Amino acid sequence: MNVVITPEMVGQVVISGILSGALYAMVALGLALIFGVMRVINVAHGPLLMLGAYVTYFLFSGLGLNPYLTVPVSMAVMFVVGVILQRTLVFRVVNAPELSSLLLTFGISIALVNLAQLAFTSDLRAIEYLTRSFVVGPFAISGSRFIAFLFAIAVTALAFLFLQRTKLGKAIRATSQSAEVAMVCGIDVSRVHMITFGLGAALAAGGGALIAVVIAIQPEMGQVWTFKSFLVIVLGGAGNYPGALLGGLLLGLVEQLASLFLTTQLSEVVAYLLLVVVLLLRPSGLLSGRQT
Amino acid sequence: MIRAFLATLAGVLVLLAVYPTFGTGYGVRATQQVFMWIVLAGSWNLISGLTGYVSFGHVAFYGIGAYAGAILVTRAGWAWEPAALAGGLAACLLAVLIGYPCLRLKGPYFAIAMLGLNEVLRALVSYFEGLTGGGSGLSLPTLDASVPIYYAMGLTAMLVTLLTYRIVTSRFGLRLMTIREDEVAAEAMGIDTARHKLGAFILSAAGPGIAGALTARDQGYIEPVSVFPLAMTITMIVMALFGGKGTVWGPVLGAAVLFVAQEMLWARFPYLHQLLFGTIIVAVVLLMPRGVLGILQMKYRLPRTI
Questions:
Q1: Residue A140 main-chain phi, psi, to 5 deg
Q2: How far apart, in whole angstroms, are the C-alpha atoms of residue B111 and residue A80?
Q3: Which residue among A163, A252, B148, B257 is buried most deeply as judged by most CB within 10 Å?
Q4: Domain locations in chain A?
């Protein structure tokens, strides 16, 4: 079993690492926003992503819509779901000790997965669209992954523009820096919490919608994304929004390189070791300092 | 009051000790499961209830104990009693290895690191197929020892509860609770917080390790997915929380009540049990974060050592 690793193979995995890394960054940015603003670790992030994937699937298979056109629809639907969840349950554990938010969102998470199993069954469902790959020089690139990458970049850029430029975005960043000072400045903090949770859910749903075109979906697809998003925001520094981008790309690259040099099964282990090392050396993430 | 409590306790213990002679097969098995949950919830309580460090992957110790025990039984031909102790030891070793770096992490970071540990162990166990049988699992030779294992599990549950009592009433326990209330202050008072946290962490790993090895022997078959489920961590946490975290008898009460509740729900609503379990979790977190005993301690001034 002596496989020679050529530079082309390394290039290939670096490309796929960057492609999936952008998606990780986008999904994890949602988690980072929720954690940064509310100090809530959202274990239900993956199941929200799963619901977003199903919205896209049903719009595609039921109405015959182009799956990429459904991405904003799916994000909008899940924004509303996120706002409702925040308004009914999550607001009670804002700034509570982490045990409360972990358990509450875990409860939401298994309830959502169970509901999805009842409503959609556990069958694998795939969107047959853009299944071809194209070749650039020595590298093959999957069409659907590449478009997912472009969408992820665009959505993430829009999210940053929103956070930097709009009044609401500034209110969100202010609240994540200090809820009390934000309140004193006249920011409606509970409204910011609601919108932030909606945005976080929308970013997860966008990821889910894009993944639905790449791989077959099923109700339990979300859990692994929860874990990956955790890794990303810890690598980048929780509550540090540019850090989520760096963390996402890093996780994508590490996973792909580990599966090339070791095996796919161990890529999670390598990612975890990376997490522990980063936490020990830089407990506040790679981009430390609270520059939100 | 105390005398009545001790008399009731002795009565319950005697009843449980003679129960296998007249109980049904299902009853004995279910009681053994309650013992297991007492071990798990009580052990989680030792680290998380007392120090406030939320171990969100405590089932990792159960899983490692199950695999250590099962490997010793199948590959080395050990009897189940020493294999169970070895399972506990393996879990303690893992606790040293993981606790040393990870207990320096604060709050949510520790929780996420523990969650990750569980995922990673599952991946590792699947990877080392030669030793663990990989994803297809590991079958143990058949053995009819369900009654001795019932007693072993019951004894482990008693020891974990006794240990909790000894810790809560000791200086060691007071120091742990000081860390929970304010770690910086604890350090300023001269408590070696790193050593105390690690000590509590190791003690909290032993019980799940033994319980894992005993359950593996009893069921005769283990696989990565069945011994490292996140849901099991959550169940033990919710049990400890329901009874009252940081108390001696809270995890016992929570394990007994919620196990019975879960058995009834599973049988009646096979398709909805996840949804119902989710609802129970949300209800416990929102409505009674202090737990039954915590509330009673506040209202009726029950002693701290209950």
A1: -100, 135
A2: 29
A3: A252
A4: 7-127+135-281
Task: Kindly report, residue by residue over B197-226, the tens digit of the pLDDT.
Answer: 999 999 999 999 999 999 999 999 999 988
Which of B40, B70, B43, B44 lies closest to B56, judged by CA? B44
Chain B residue with minimum CA distance to A105:
B282
Mean pLDDT calculated for residue range B73-102:
94
pLDDT tens-digit readout, A43-80: 999 999 999 999 999 999 999 888 899 999 999 999 99
Q: What are phi and psi for residue B21, nearest 5 degrees?
A: -75, -25
| Shortest distance, CA B10 to any CA of chain A (angstroms) | 34
Closest CA to A177 of A189, A167, A166: A189
| Contact criterion met (CB below 8 Å) for A93 and A40 | yes
Query: Which residue in the set B120, B234, B285 is minimally distant from A269, CB to CB?
Result: B120
With 90 as the cut, is the pLDDT of residue A260 above it? Answer: no
| pTM given for the model | 0.90
Q: Which helix (H) or strand (E) holds A32?
A: helix A7-38
Best of A93, A106, A255, A263 to disrupt the B interface by mutation (most B CBs within 10 Å)?
Answer: A106
The alpha-carbon gap from B265 to the nearest alpha carbon of chain A, in Å, equals 14
How far apart, in whole angstroms, are the C-alpha atoms of residue B102 and residue B25?
Answer: 42
Task: Report in angstroms the alpha-carbon separations of B107 from A98, A238, A283, B56, B292.
Answer: 7, 12, 12, 11, 25
| Candidate from A260-269, B156-165, B176-185 with smallest mean pLDDT | A260-269
A259 neighbors A208 (Cβ within 8 angstroms):
no
A228: pLDDT strictly greater than 50: yes
User: Residue A172 and residue A192: Cα distance in Å, rounded?
Assistant: 6
From residue B212, alpha-carbon distances to B34, B123, B166, B227, B245 in Å are 14, 18, 24, 8, 22
Assign domain A7-127+135-281 to its CATH architecture. Answer: Orthogonal Bundle (1.10)
Phi, psi of A178 (to 5 degrees): -160, 110
What confidence tier does A290 reach under pLDDT thresholds 50, 70, 90? Answer: very low
Pick the residue from chain A with its C-alpha nearest to B290.
A100
Confidence of residue B290 (pLDDT cuts 50, 70, 90): confident
pLDDT score for A239: 67
Q: What is the mean pLDDT of chain A?
A: 89
Residues whose CB is less than 8 angstroms from the CB of residue A205 and which lie 6 or more positions away in sequence, other chains included: A48, A49, A51, A52, A53, A55, A74, A75, A77, A78, A79
Contact A265 B285 (CB under 8 A): no
> What are the tokens at B273?
């049990």
- Predicted pLDDT at A70: 93
Subunit contact B275:A265, Cβ cutoff 8 A:
no
Do the beta carbons of residue A141 and residue A17 sit within 8 Å? no
